[in-house]
Amino acid sequence: MNRLWKEFSKGLWNELPPFKVVLGLCPVLAVTKTADNGFGMGLAVIFVLTLSNMLVSSVRKVIPAKVRIACFIVIAASLVVCVELLMQAFAYPLYQQLGIFVPLIVVNCIILGRAEAFASKNPITYAIADGLGMGIGFAMSLTVLGAIREIFGYGTLFGVQILGSWFKPFTFMVEAPGAFVCLGLGLAGMNALTNWQRRLKGLDAIEGPKHDCASCGMCNIK
Amino acid sequence: MKEMIKMVVVLSLICSLSGLTLASVRGVTKPFIEEQVLTYVQGPAIKKVYTGNDNNPVRDRKTFTLKDGAELTVFPFLKGSRLGGVAFESHGRGYGGEIGVMVGFSYDPASDMADVSGIGITTMKETPGVGSRVNDPEFGEQFKNHPFKGMALKSAGGDISAVAGATISSTGTVDAVKTAIATFNEIKGEFSSTWGSQEQP
User: Is residue A130 part of a domain?
Assistant: First the structure.
């Protein structure tokens, strides 16, 4: 149970995608113009990531090492097409908003990264916990990022006007550069918070994000 | 050798399983997707081209087979279960590809009187700011309650003013409407038997 919780919760802060692992940036920068777009994209990623981790982990012993990447991609691609069809069938306005970025989940590095680094080496329950945690972390980040950009860029949140008519929107925030700035400031803020916590405990501040490489293996350095 | 066979078998097995799954998911979601496309792509255009109906044209739609074998989905406008008009999509050649136009007709089967009640652009790839202005109200308003006669650009002897600087896009739109009128005349005899029968108790 302890390990299960550890695998699940690492995606929520310690290895929070996309801030801490800085993977899968293409959809992060492109679809977080509004909070509900980010949330919708996040839900799609939770679905694909959890199921792909589960499937990859369950077939990890029969897949020959030489064709494993091809197998992972086939699994992820099938799931993504499923999501795309379901989204078209039941949430068409969201599909119109996300457009090309739904099929592009296939090549989202987080999906393949978790399949290769975690699911293909761990039993199925841990793989599901990992996928769920990473997916929820990703959805959370996208929603928060989308909310910040939407508030400053349009003065709304989830489509509801929250800032008065005095507010002049910063169009910059809903353009691509605004996404980079938000992401960078968010990452800087998270690191500052970590260092502040470490100082409270009497530890030295760390330079840059520090990963526990043994358990993650996202970049496959051994 | 053994490893190679295993590689081939495993990969083809995974691929065929995924193909099977996708085919069944597609089959299940197909009717829902069609419904959604009608609601979110054609629905708004249908609402624009006719007013005064009290039915749901998307739900009451019927598919007709034309003389050339093509299938056409027609959306009826009913008022108190009497047919007041129809709408369907038609296409014309624009500057950047096909222009899809939803053409609405007001039609009284009893007196055989018919006019174009309005048009709405559904799909187009015209140059933004130039050809795309065929989607502007100023251009579209000209088709409101327009008789079939004189449905041509002013330069071709009709009474529709083209969008300045976008003759090809304007012609494409008018051509789509003209095609729609021809189609309408071809199948109008079938309308009252298709939807008019609802008058009987």
Answer: yes
Q: Where in the sequence is the domain holding A192, given as residue range(s)?
A: 2-216
* A176 occurs within a structural domain: yes
Packing angle between helix A2-9 and helix A124-154, nearest 10 degrees?
Answer: 30
Closest among A145, A122, A143 to A56, alpha carbons compared: A122
Measured CA to CA, the distance from residue A77 to residue B18 in angstroms comes to 9
Taking the C-alpha atoms of residue B53 and residue B38, their distance in angstroms, rounded to an integer, is 18
Q: How far apart are CA B35 and CA B197, in angstroms?
A: 25
Contact of B36 with A88, CB cutoff 8 Å: yes
Size of interface A-B (CB pairs under 8 A): 54
Quick one: tokens of A14? 């310690």
Is B10–A74 a contact, with Cβ atoms under 8 angstroms apart?
A: no
| pTM of the predicted model as reported, rounded to 2 decimal places | 0.71
> Regarding predicted confidence, which is higher, A137 or A222?
A137
A146 and A37 Cβ atoms separated by less than 8 Å: yes
Q: Nearest C-alpha of chain A: how many angstroms from B27?
A: 10
| Residue B75 contacts residue B57 (beta carbons within 8 Å) | yes
Does residue A199 sit within a domain? yes
Give this complex's ipTM.
0.73
Chain A residue with minimal CA distance to B8? A67
Higher-pLDDT residue of B105, B129? B105
B147-169 confidence digits (pLDDT tens): 888 888 888 888 888 888 888 99
Secondary structure class of B75 (helix, strand, coil)? strand
- For residue A186, give Cα distances in angstroms to A12, A33, A178, A191, A216: 15, 16, 12, 9, 22
Q: Which of residues 11-30 of B touch A (CB under 8 A)?
A: 11, 14-15, 18, 21-22, 25-26, 29
Q: How many CA atoms lie within 13 A of B191 on its CB side?
A: 30
Write out the two tokens for B93: 């050649």
| Residue A89 C-alpha from the chain's centroid | 24
Q: Are B191 and B78 in contact (CB under 8 A)?
A: no
State pLDDT tens for residues A117-141: 889 889 999 999 999 999 999 999 9
In a domain, A222, yes or no: no
The CA distance from A85 to the nearest CA of chain B, in Å, is 7
Instruction: From A123, A180, A145, A118, select the one nearest A39 (Cα to Cα).
Output: A145
